[in-house]
Amino acid sequence: LDPEEFRRQAHLVVDFIADYYSNIENYPVCSQVEPGYLTKTMPQSAPLQPAPIETILQDVQKHIIPGITHWQSPRFFGYFQSNGSTGNFLGEMLLTGFNSVGFNWLASPAATELEMLVMEWLLKLLQLPNSFSFSSSGGGVIHGSTCESFVCTLIAAREKRLQSGTKGDALGKLVVYCSDQTHFSLQKACQVVGISPHNVRSIQTKRSMNFQLSPDALLTAIEADVRAGLIPLYVCLTVGTTPTTAVDPLLTLSEVARRFGMWVHVDAAYAGSACICPEFRHFLDGVEGANSFSFNPHKWFLTTLDCCCLWVKDQSDLTKALSNDPELLKNKASETKKVVDYKNWQIALSRRFRAMKLWMVIRSYGVTGLQQVVRKHVKLAKHFEALLSADNRFEVVVPTNFATVCFRVAASDELDSNPLTQSLLESLNGSALVYMTHAVIEGVYVIRVAIGATLTEEKHVLMLWDMVQQHATHLLAKYIS
Ligand code: PLP
């Protein structure tokens, strides 16, 4: 690596990215390419000779950008956003530049200590109970994804339960509980840790209860399993579910779970970021009853993939289940047991220096800047919700808790809402000017409008509203005639 040549090439890449952001609104939000498009244009074997950066960037412009769905577009309203920021991009550059592999403290003390520091900052910002802090028996770790946090906490819960004297074919008897709104990655995590899909109870929720998991329904399910000789292990509660951003009642649910000695995990992947604002913190009330809590800065915290923050109340639950002590890594610092070796808090050995980008984000925007981002998006979402509510052609299906609005074409005797709402979504997305996704809840097809891209402003939401009205007018005229 020649530093001067690196400087020259990196400047070209920064210019390229800056131009990409200047032009982002000129691209179709969702990529319009056909499957296999790239294999038709790219050489099928690796090039023998090196190419100059200028040529490579031309290829990126010509071949890669057409196949990109522009999640950073201000008119991207799909899934949940994965927003980014200047602070984050620069943090990514630094962490990639250092490319240090902080599997234990010695391998890169700054990587471990910055991660611990940032996790303690966030703990205070989210007003998490002190029991999740390093100053108590807990602590926080940055994983790549919520799915990884599910796997690690499930393994911790499993080992704790199996070590507590449970005999016989205990693994086959362990049961995991969640709601039918819980993110589907929990199912996969259960498969990974050896919990049979037959032993995952996906408890039905109701629209009349805003799709919250009911403590009574949880209790009924647990009691039935206990009567059948099964062992309740773990319940996943969600603050901000993926389909509708529902919030489970944490306090009562964790009280139910505690009666059976279960592990309680709170997944706030999307909505956790909002809880840094005092006015939204109440959504986390009851988190003190949980064994673990996670949220994804890579959704709504100006931080790009991959970044999931996980706290546990008792760090030894994780480290007992995930530690190893190979000769190759033995060192004096680890032997003192006074340092954190994060390899024992995760699946992989090697790990990225993710704290660098999260620290850069917090330093660059400050708490007030990050709160402003959340408040702006929530305000825009509330405005969009109000516009929909005032038009009797539409129905807002659940109250907007955060910045994701779920709506459909209002049902009537003459109109079957589901196909019409689906056609409306297809028609809007077909314009390539905006992009949204859908959910089906209690048989109802809804359009989800997730407002949270960093560049989204009021004008983009108003443009979306104009489009929704125009496309609906057109479709309804066709449907009725
Ligand atoms: N939990 C919730 C509530 C989510 O919305 C998502 C993704 O959207 C996930 C978990 C999965 O997150 P990850 O992709 O980090 O595993």
TrEMBL record:
One term of GO molecular function: pyridoxal phosphate binding
Gene3D superfamilies: Aspartate Aminotransferase, domain 1, dopa decarboxylase, N-terminal domain, Type I PLP-dependent aspartate aminotransferase-like (Major domain)
Keywords: Decarboxylase, Lyase, Pyridoxal phosphate
GO CC entries: cytoplasm
GO biological process: amino acid metabolic process; carboxylic acid metabolic process
UniProt-listed SUPFAM superfamilies: PLP-dependent transferases (SSF53383)
Residues found modified as N6-(pyridoxal phosphate)lysine: K299
InterPro entries found in the cross-reference section: Aromatic_deC, PyrdxlP-dep_de-COase, PyrdxlP-dep_Trfase, PyrdxlP-dep_Trfase_major, PyrdxlP-dep_Trfase_small, Pyridoxal-P_BS
A Pfam family matched in the record: Pyridoxal_deC
Cofactor(s) needed: pyridoxal 5'-phosphate
Top-level taxon of the source organism: Eukaryota
Similarity comment: family membership: Belongs to the group II decarboxylase family.
Protein name per the record: Tyrosine decarboxylase
